[in-house]
């Protein structure tokens, strides 16, 4: 306490709230992360200067998918790794081509937690968790591709594991099977399939097995179409648009029959083997025998359901096709619709608008339409502290100043011509928003807007102030952008990376690096 008062006196701050605010902004040199915050602040200022350019330094093409993870570009089904951090991308490792039986289905980047003691020196370096088509879970070195750990997942019952996801990022991982479906002949013979999905749960670094469970029709119902786990919540989706939430941690604790550890010998239901080794795999040691207590349920078109904000709210679309593009923002506490909680851009477009809670943890909401981005915030209704309303924080509007869309035109001879159609809101010849993302380290909101004239499409990546939406920088992308192709754009500090998927599984990758503009460099 005495040291805190001394710090207050030394810096001339006499208000605790102000002191905490100054700490958050890195005013005190001995605070952890101050140098890092200052460096990122400098990088943001340099990057947004008018003289700073982004130059296309590398382009490649591939017949297989291209993936990007934290400064690394993966090609050839993760057999080839290229660093994008260097001035020009360079090869980190190239492994020999793998057999079809070793094909990688999904992958997650695993990074070392700060301030924890880990059992192996390799645990302190970044690694890649991959899932193969033959149900092997591998942990690979991100620097060499070397196999550090391997776990066999499937046991006696046929489980085709296909998906990796985080329950708690960088802490608890979920491995999900494809949906179990009986062959047509078995269905015709009257054989019933009650198990829909398998979920295997792991703690990471060190990699340890928590348990495996079934999602069964007898417990959750016949119309289950998909499941997911996020932030300790089991999310079950149904064919009629219903979404149900359960406490996943409570399920693990209540229905765990026996704990197992990787490498442990076991005798389970007549099977003798080693946990995580071929051919036994992992035991299904979590048996849900009764429907767990329901936390929450909602009905939404196409199972679209999101939770966020403060206090907690959720976003749904009423479960009728005529309401597609209409979003309701409701209180999680009592299901009350927020004031101005119905968001409808009334777009006339081929691609629908989309909405989500801002990833910056501010509790705000981002609503993206073809030519308009609205950043919304939750705030208390005046004189009604228990009621919340949706207010506009700021908007970003596409540049359509040169667009003329008159339904009636007059020719040079004076003849009046009426158009029989009107342009769509996302007509390719008008600037249209395609991607909106958030760069957390630089606190910038990035947008990709595209205009296509004939076969030639032009895109630019814009950086906006995340607090007020002010345009700070615009970067034209050199390559042509076809709106009918699939695109991904990554903005990672001083790097911009564009991955494009063309027809017939042709992939392209374009890398842009931040460079200082000089008299000798016109790019």
Tell me what the structure shows:
Helices cover 10% and strands 45% of the residues. It is mainly beta and 523 residues long. The termini are far apart.
Briefly say what this structure is.
The chain crosses the membrane at residues 195-215, 227-246. The protein has 523 residues and is mainly beta.
Reconstruct the topology from this structure.
Layout: H1 2-11, H2 16-24, H3 34-47, E1 52-62, E2 67-69, E3 72-75, E4 80-83, E5 90-94, E6 104-110, E7 127-132, E8 136-141, E9 147-152, E10 161-168, E11 172-177, H4 184-188, E12 195-203, E13 208-216, H5 217-220, E14 224-230, E15 233-238, E16 242-247, H6 248-255, E17 265-268, E18 271-274, E19 294-299, E20 305-308, E21 313-316, E22 326-331, E23 337-344, E24 354-357, E25 365-368, E26 372-381, E27 384-397, E28 408-410, E29 416-418, E30 432-439, E31 444-453, E32 456-465, E33 471-476, E34 486-492, E35 495-502, E36 506-516
């Amino acid at each position: 306490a005495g040291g805190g008062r001394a710090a207050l006196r030394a810096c001339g701050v006499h208000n605790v709230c102000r002191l905490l605010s100054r700490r958050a902004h890195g005013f005190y040199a001995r605070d952890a992360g101050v140098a890092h915050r200052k460096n990122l602040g400098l990088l943001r200022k340099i990057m947004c200067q008018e003289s700073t350019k982004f130059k296309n330094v590398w382009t490649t093409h591939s017949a297989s998918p291209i993936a990007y993870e934290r400064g690394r570009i993966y090609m050839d089904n993760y057999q080839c790794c290229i660093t994008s951090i260097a001035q020009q991308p360079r090869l980190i490792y190239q492994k020999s081509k793998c057999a079809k039986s070793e094909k990688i289905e999904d992958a997650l980047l695993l990074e070392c937690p700060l301030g924890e003691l880990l059992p192996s020196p390799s645990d302190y370096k970044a690694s890649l968790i991959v899932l193969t088509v033959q149900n092997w879970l591998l942990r690979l070195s991100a620097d060499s591709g070397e196999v550090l750990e391997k776990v066999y997942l499937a046991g006696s019952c046929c489980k085709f594991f296909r998906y990796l996801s985080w329950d708690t990022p960088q802490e608890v991982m979920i491995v999900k099977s494809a949906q179990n479906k009986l062959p047509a002949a078995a269905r015709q013979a009257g054989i019933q399939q009650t198990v829909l999905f398998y979920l295997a749960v792991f703690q990471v670094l060190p990699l340890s097995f928590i348990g495996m469970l079934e999602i069964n029709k007898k417990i959750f119902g016949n119309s289950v179409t998909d499941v997911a786990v996020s932030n300790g919540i089991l999310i079950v989706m149904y064919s009629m648009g219903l979404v149900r939430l359960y406490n996943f941690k409570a399920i693990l604790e209540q229905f765990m029959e026996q704990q197992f550890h990787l490498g442990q010998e076991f005798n389970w239901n007549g099977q003798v083997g080693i946990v995580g080794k071929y051919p036994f795999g992992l035991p299904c040691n979590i048996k849900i025998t009764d429907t767990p207590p329901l936390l929450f349920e909602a009905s939404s078109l196409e199972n679209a359901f999101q939770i966020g904000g403060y206090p907690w709210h959720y976003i749904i679309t009423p479960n009728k096709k005529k309401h597609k593009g209409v979003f309701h923002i409701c209180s999680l506490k009592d299901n009350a619709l927020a004031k101005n909680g119905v968001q409808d851009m009334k777009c006339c477009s081929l691609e629908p608008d989309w909405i989500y809670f801002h990833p910056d943890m501010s509790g705000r909401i981002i609503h993206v339409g073809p030519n308009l981005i609205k950043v919304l915030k939750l705030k208390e209704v005046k004189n009604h502290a228990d009621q919340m309303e949706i207010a506009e924080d700021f908007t970003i509007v596409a540049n359509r100043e040169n667009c003329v869309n008159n339904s009636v035109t007059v020719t040079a001879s004076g003849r009046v011509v009426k158009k029989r159609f009107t342009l769509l809101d996302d007509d390719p010849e008008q600037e249209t928003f395609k991607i909106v993302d958030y760069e957390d380290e630089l606190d910038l909101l990035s947008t990709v807007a595209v205009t296509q004239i004939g076969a030639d499409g032009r895109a630019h990546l814009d950086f906006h102030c995340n607090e007020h939406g002010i345009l700070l920088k615009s970067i034209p992308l050199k390559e042509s952008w076809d709106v009918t192709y699939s695109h991904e754009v990554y903005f990672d500090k001083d790097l911009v990376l564009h991955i494009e998927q063309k027809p017939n599984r042709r992939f392209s990758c374009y890398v842009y690096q931040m460079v200082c503009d000089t008299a000798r460099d016109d790019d």
